[in-house]
Design brief:
Three copies of one chain form a homotrimer. By secondary structure, the first copy, chain A, is α/β, with parallel strands linked by helices. Chain A has two domains: 98 residues, uronate isomerase, domain 2, chain A; 306 residues, TIM Barrel, CATH 3.20.20.140. Helices cover 51% and strands 6% of the residues of chain A. In chain A, the strands form three sheets. In chain A, strands 4-5-8-9 form a four-stranded parallel sheet, covered by helices on one side. In chain A, helix 17 links the parallel strand 8 and strand 9. In chain A, helix 17 crosses helix 18. Chain A starts with 12 loop residues before the first helix and ends with a helix. At the A-C interface, helix 4, helix 15, strand 7 and helix 18 of A face helix 16, helix 17, helix 18, helix 19 and helix 20 of C.
């Protein structure tokens, strides 16, 4: 077997027993997935998923960044290729390097899918590569492995995608039109039309104008266009926006200042500092709109995108070369908090790639400002040790109720149950220790773990 | 019962057994409280404490910041009001939100007071709110709940308050005059007369001149006035000073430079950088005076005070909206250390709100410079996990003997025994692990825990 | 006894049992020491080591920095003196302060040497000081305590020293000429000839020219001279270079820019920023040369050297007053990574004194770039807690296979077995937890611990 039923629980028998009983109370609860990067098209079309290499290797930057770091070439893995010519060959490369993932969450997520979904019980290696490839390939063609069937089997109650304001959301519309009852909702992610450093920014502003019939050459027309798209997203079920800026900087410019700055960046002008200021002002504008339309705001700052110049030039964006950087929240968020920090009807969920901010900045901020909540550990930190550090470092100041449950934040649909399972187990492990150390009573731990699994996410994201 | 006798001890039975025996050796030792924010007036007047809401909710920013973060209004809690009109109503709001404190140190401190002091054994909740209110209210009127009686019951050997140089210390004088033998000593905290950004700085400098009959319009008269007030504090038992600057910056200006800078800031002038430089120079001046008069110097840097603009404007300072910020020590302290770092008769105790500095800066500095010692985890980090991180991250480089025991640092007199109890338990838990992992012998652990409880604080603070 | 056979293993019996069995599989493996500061002369001359004070106290900044921090004078410890006049007196001071090292790795390393090497079993203290002094003194004169005999007894397969490019490596040559088979190899550490802030930089550049017959007054001659010295080191067995800059900054200047900058700093000119830029460029040049000659590159940035002005002036460099500082890698390394980051034939091993970079920067970088590997915890962090934090914070993103095993990095030859033993035990403790928590299978843990002990270091350092 690849999975042990006690995995991730503390070894001490009494603590493990508490963790087990907590886990038993939540393991069958539905999955609420309020933030991620799956494709609505999968559920609109409901076609079989492709071969194992195209499914598990090509789209998963966690997987191929590790292989690449150990000398496997991106080309040999089919990265950046439209179709993988020889998927079995890619799969064999992956299988023979599977030992590299020892001690990583990727290993746990994959083993979960391999065993729970495909019934595989022998470890993946060069030796078992073909058996895996054949087994997975065959099962993927069965009806019960189609996207909608898996959605139901995974007990997903709601799944949010992440979408550009320029997206027509035709797949979301098709899902609704199809009569299928799975709840797939879009998320408004305006980076490409609010970040002047985004490739094609100028053209996208123009496209936004065409799409909305607002004059996006003017500051007020641009804001109106954004409001209109938010409204459109909301009509299709969106409850949240998402913002992936390099920093958490916000600003509070006067209308005239903002107008002038916009006219500069809209035409491709502005210094680096001005483009940063524009992003900062746009976070504040987004908060202002959220106050009106009720969309929950997610801020994911601090990634140095496309750090590897050669890889970026050859393979493009999002190819495993984003690196976290130090991130400030205390000063960066102040302009926005000065305006809206005390609004109880606004929800802003903060994420970080800089764990030093958990106890120093994020928990103190969320433990005071009514509008702030702490998102779960993100990306590199969405791991057993990372999740445990988050609980250990944030809980004492922010408590449990300023957090919002788990995000799987994944492009890998098949890993969703595994990721939620890991999160539930770590929460149980953490709570079990608190109970064993008499810092919390049993009945409280049961109430909390249920909230961490479903209650908080539903309330924070209005789902 | 609200408290378990093994609370905070590791769950593993053998380790817990060691922790228990260590704790048994220190749990009844007296409390030495060298730094905090209780009021000397309580002990001068020895009047009953007020109702539960005024006692536990209104003055405790740990309590109301959490409630506020979850949407409870400050007005409804009586914050900023001279008298709470309906304390029972405030108490009920607090009680019905008590679950928010799960997993926080506030919960442990309060439960300790509720059970140990007031004999309450059922958890606080909406249901038990009135029972709590009535029980506590009634007991507070009894003679054994008067401040001096509690001081004795808590086995406090010495309690330091924190006071402005402009304070006449009349309450301290009254205590002495009363013949009561409780040792309450003042601490010299000159922020309001050395930080040009402090509200009323200019007027305070003038007041300092009047109080001391020195010409505080001149740099040398100003320094003489400060020396005189230090001496006055010392006569009333003070053994320490305390400095709460935004950063740990120090400076080493020439007399002429300092004189010129002073003349600028004294009249309300100076840029932000100059005001920071003045604070920096004043830390160095304070160290120089400490070399002469022997007062131990405490530095508490790194709080972004009054971060919430609206709350600051409406409710004033110290209302739960201070947020930690990243803090540098290595470069900031160098000017002062260049002058006095090697003085063995000087003691400077460093605190931090930035835990990243424990292993990177503070332990290496204190593990080298004879004048430096490490204060215990402060404020947001004065918690079970926070204290454990401090021991884990500082001990290997600084050892135990460059630390100074525990500070409760509290305004909440009734929480003092609880806070010291938590600190003792965590120290026992940490030491028990070292013993169980054969990194320390039993006899050494007993010696150390006694030092961590009483020995180090007495020696570091000259108490 | 000073040492327990289960030291450093987790207390929980089942986990401890796993740790024991893992440890049993690696405890007798040879020592590969790819980076350290022992003297080749010891093995060239093979003379007895000196008295205990000169051996254990005078050269070990871990030891005397702690003593100094607690008020012991450097003079009384013989620091900076050519010969210690009364070694027994120094030893007694050390012994009477030995309790200061409780909870530190120094204590573990010393106890290991005391017991395993000298058969001492009673704790060092004022009482046992003379017994220790006499026992150690007597044994050091025996043939089996001569450097070469200890080298064999320690089962050292290879030991790297760290050497200036201006060093003639005569001791290394003498070892080779002697016919003794111990493998001692030099490491190319060019700080003194690439860092314009290094004392005597200008003169050293001239000396480099004389030594190599290249015109080091010109940029190209300077580079040729460095290449020649690298080649000379390689001929004597060197497989690596080492770089101890204040920061990790790299640069990518044009030939003309570099030439111009060199002409400025070579003559003692240049601003602080220009000297930093020169160091940055030289890291890139060293990487370029490594691509050609295959020497593995080690970068040890982030130490604020000689922080204590008075101690530096009186006792010189490397006297226990170096303090870590915050260190950036993400931006600093980019210029070099833009050029060489994707080279699979280049190995750059990154170290840090800033633990916050483990999960935020170093693991993500090493988990992507083929040329990058993570060095083990360094200096202040080479300790049980520090090593555990490294594994916990780096493994989930970088895996095990982007790390390079252990460095003892020591001047204290007698501590080498102790340091490797601690590292092996902590690795076993970490792996045992993963196995007990079913995050890794037994067979995998055995394979990994063997790699962490010997395999990875051999491969990364080409030893």
């Amino acid at each position: 077997m690849l999975l042990h039923e006690d995995r991730l629980f503390p070894a001490e028998p009494a603590v493990r027993q508490i963790a087990r009983s907590l886990y038993a109370s939540v393991k069958d609860l539905p999955i609420i997935s309020p933030h991620g990067h799956t494709q609505a098209a999968w559920f609109a079309d409901n076609e079989p998923f492709p071969d194992p290499a195209t499914l598990f290797v090509q789209p998963d930057h966690y997987v191929y960044r590790m292989l690449y770091s150990q000398g496997v070439s991106m080309d040999d893995l089919g990265i950046g290729q439209r179709y993988i010519e020889d998927p079995r060959k890619v799969w064999r490369i992956f299988a023979s390097h599977y030992y590299l993932f020892r001690g990583t969450p990727t290993r746990m997520w994959l083993d979960f899918a391999f065993q729970e979904l495909f019934g595989l019980t022998e470890r993946l290696s060069a030796k078992t590569a073909d058996h895996y490839f054949d087994t997975i390939s065959a099962k993927l063609l069965r009806p019960e492995f189609l996207p909608r069937a898996l959605f139901d089997r995974f007990k997903i109650h709601v799944l949010a995608t992440t979408d550009s304001p320029l997206d027509t959301l035709s797949d979301h519309q098709a899902i609704r039109a199809s009569g299928w009852k799975g709840r797939i909702v879009p998320t408004f992610r305006p980076d490409s039309v609010v970040d002047p450093d985004f490739p094609g920014f100028v053209e996208r502003i123009a496209a936004l104008g065409q799409m909305t019939s607002h004059d996006t050459a003017s500051w007020s027309g641009y804001l109106k266009a954004l409001r209109q798209r938010r409204s459109f997203f909301k009509d299709l079920g969106a409850t949240a926006t998402d913002h992936g800026h390099p920093t958490a900087q916000t600003a509070n410019l006067s209308h005239a200042e903002a107008e002038q700055l916009f006219s500069k960046v809209r035409t491709g002008g502005g210094t680096a500092a001005e483009r940063e200021l524009f992003r900062a002002q746009m976070l504040t504008e987004m908060a202002r709109m959220s106050l009106d339309d009720g969309l929950v705001m997610q801020i994911h700052p601090g990634s140095f995108r496309n750090h590897n110049k050669q890889i970026h030039e050859k393979f493009g964006r999002d190819t495993g070369a984003d690196i976290p950087q130090q991130t400030d929240y205390v000063h960066a968020l102040k302009p926005m908090l000065d305006l809206f920090g005390n609004e109880t009807s606004l929800t802003i969920i903060l994420f970080t790639l800089d764990e030093t901010t958990y106890s120093r900045e994020l928990a103190p901020l969320a433990g005071h400002y009514p509008c702030l909540r702490l998102g779960p550990p993100w990306w590199f930190h969405d791991s057993p040790e990372g999740m445990m550090r988050f609980r250990e470092q944030a809980t004492e100041t922010a408590g449990f109720y300023n957090t919002v449950g788990f995000n799987d934040d994944t492009r890998a649909f098949l890993s969703i149950p595994a990721r939620h399972d890991v999160a539930r187990r770590i929460d149980c492990a953490f709570l079990a220790r608190l109970v064993a150390e008499h810092r919390l009573e049993h009945d409280e731990a049961f109430e909390i773990v249920s909230d961490l699994t479903c209650g908080l996410v539903r309330r924070a994201y209005k789902l």
